[in-house]
Specification:
The complex is a heterodimer of chains A (288) and B (210). Chain A has 288 residues and is of the alpha/beta class. Chain A has eleven helices and eight strands. The longest helix of chain A has 17 residues. Chain A is globular, with a radius of gyration of 19 Å. Chain B folds into two domains: 101 residues, Fumarate Reductase Iron-sulfur Protein, Chain B, domain 2, CATH 1.10.1060; 89 residues, no CATH class. Classes of the chains: A alpha/beta (288), B mainly alpha (210).
Chain lengths: 288, 210
């Protein structure tokens, strides 16, 4: 294992709608013996709503600079936060004039380009490694899973850390913990519709429903994911989708950190499994 | 409808290519890979990013900037990932949205989508608090979208009544939820709010650099 301490960037949903992702991320890293140091006084990464690149780089420069002072690489469980941190990191490393300009706005934006930004999936599989994780497993998570990756794990190319068409990092973890992957390949990376939820809810609901339908028809016990916006659409809004479109789905949606936590023998409530909107009890019954 | 060459703006492509994200526009050779892979086309069959790119290259400035399709792009990056010419279509559409927003602010265009209002309301939360404040965002966005406070609140209730209750019962939002008496009801504020203010005053909408 090549990593024992990381700066942790939870992201805004960690305080509310995606608390269970936050709780399970902290619990899993603790169990794996990796210390997480929360980026002190972190600010929002800009999500999908800050489209101006320079404004986005400035917001992320502050978080990067805080982690750099601690001399730690940053890890985040949110795919959108990862995308914004990583592209800002790349832009700032490559452009000294940009760094100078941002430093001129406020000294807290003084980032020297010395750290790396990572997504939790990347850290689990590529830094900690499957062998190390395997040695700490206590239980078998005997569930059929539709692994849903969403947008920013395999796209766009310059920030991606998995295959754009058939990403596999989550599959590897699920198989490692005793789960079975259902046929889901062509849906793995289709957008959940989240970015349009507040402005074109009709389109967003259609898109999320397709993912839920395919997963259910493939025989999945649950969907696994690694992004709080996908979680909001597929889990938080699932009952609204059922009501609006006149369908019955009832499919649990669980963060990969929660599934991994179960296999590591962590108590379900510590992983926030009582906080997912669609009940997770059936899944818990399959952890042996 | 035939294109009227005398109405084209030959400088439009340069305007796009001078903005961050728009640099590769002219590399497009119209293969349509972007459109074939786009998940929106399954829901809106007329949606066509290839066409938007070609119209931009031709200089059809007004038609492009007033095209409502600009505002249903998910920024999912599928087009960008698959483009053989590295046009970075998702980023180009972002540039077009920014130019359209500036034209609307200058009074030259009416955007047929609430998305700019949403993005602005989102950014206002960051400028004020440094983090996303869901309630504040909804309280600002809905009245602007619906045209009045009352209508906005009614629309918000309709969209979020069930969801809010669900989140409350899970302890994620509302009084007594999530380990704090008012979780989600009040903004989570960062200490260095002054830095957010400085960033937005320099680089945000209407900021010094704009």
């Amino acid at each position: 294992m090549s990593v024992n301490k990381l700066a942790y960037y939870p992201g805004c949903p960690s305080e509310g709608t995606a608390m269970e992702q936050h709780m399970s991320t902290e619990a899993v890293f603790e169990k794996l013996g990796v210390e997480l140091v929360e980026v002190e006084d972190w600010n929002c990464c800009g999500a999908a709503e800050v489209e101006d690149p320079k404004l986005l780089y400035a917001l992320n420069a502050r978080n990067l600079a805080i982690a750099e002072k601690e001399d730690l690489d940053i890890v985040t469980p949110c795919s959108i936060c990862y995308y914004n941190l990583e592209r800002s990191n790349k832009a700032l490393k490559a452009d000294e004039a940009l760094r100078t300009q941002l430093k001129g706005i406020d000294s807290s934006l003084d980032y020297n380009g010395k750290i790396k930004t990572k997504h939790v999936l990347d850290v689990f599989v590529n830094d900690i490694g499957l062998d190390e994780i395997s040695s700490k497993l206590e239980k078998k998570v005997n569930v059929k899973v539709a692994p849903y990756y969403g947008c920013y794990i395999g796209r766009p190319p310059e920030t991606a850390f998995d295959d754009p068409d058939n990403p596999v990092l989550m599959d590897k973890l699920i198989e490692l913990i005793g789960g079975e992957i259902v046929p889901f390949n062509y849906m793995k990376t289709v957008c959940c519709g989240g970015p349009l939820m507040m402005t074109r809810g009709d389109i967003a609901f259609d898109m999320a429903r397709k993912i839920l339908d395919v997963a259910k028809n493939a025989g999945a016990d649950c969907i696994s994911l690694a992004c709080p916006l996908c979680g909001m659409m597929l889990d938080g809004k699932q009952a609204d989708i059922e009501k609006a479109l006149g369908v019955t789905i009832g499919l649990p949606v669980i963060y990969i950190t929660q599934l991994l936590g179960l296999a590591l023998g962590i108590e379900p409530n510590k992983l926030g499994l009582n906080k997912n909107a669609v009940d997770t009890k059936e899944i818990l019954g399959k952890v042996v | 409808m035939p294109i009227k060459t005398w109405e084209l703006d030959p400088n439009f492509k340069n305007e796009i290519m001078s903005e961050a994200g728009g640099e590769h526009l002219a590399s497009c050779f119209q293969c349509s890979t972007c459109t074939l892979g786009c998940p929106i086309t399954e829901i809106i069959p007329s949606y066509n990013p290839r066409k938007i790119i070609q119209m931009s290259l031709l200089g059809m400035r007004e038609e492009v900037l007033s095209n409502p399709d600009l505002w249903v792009c998910l920024i999912c990056q599928t087009c960008t990932a698959r483009c053989p010419q590295d046009v970075r279509i998702a980023d180009v559409l972002g540039v077009l949205r920014r130019i359209a927003e500036r034209e609307e602010e200058a009074g030259n265009l009416k955007i047929d989508s609430p998305r700019p209002l949403f993005d602005k309301a989102f950014q206002h939360q960051l400028k004020k608090f440094g983090r996303l404040y869901d309630m504040g965002l909804a309280m600002e966005y809905y009245p602007k979208k619906e045209g009045s406070f009352i209508k906005g609140m009614l629309a918000m209730m309709k969209d979020y009544k069930d969801f809010g209750k669900r989140m409350f019962l899970k302890g994620k939002m509302g009084p007594l939820g999530g380990g704090s008496p008012v979780k989600g009801m009040l903004a989570s504020k960062i200490k260095q709010k002054d830095v957010m203010k400085k960033i937005f005053e320099e680089l945000g909408e209407g900021g010094k650099e704009k």
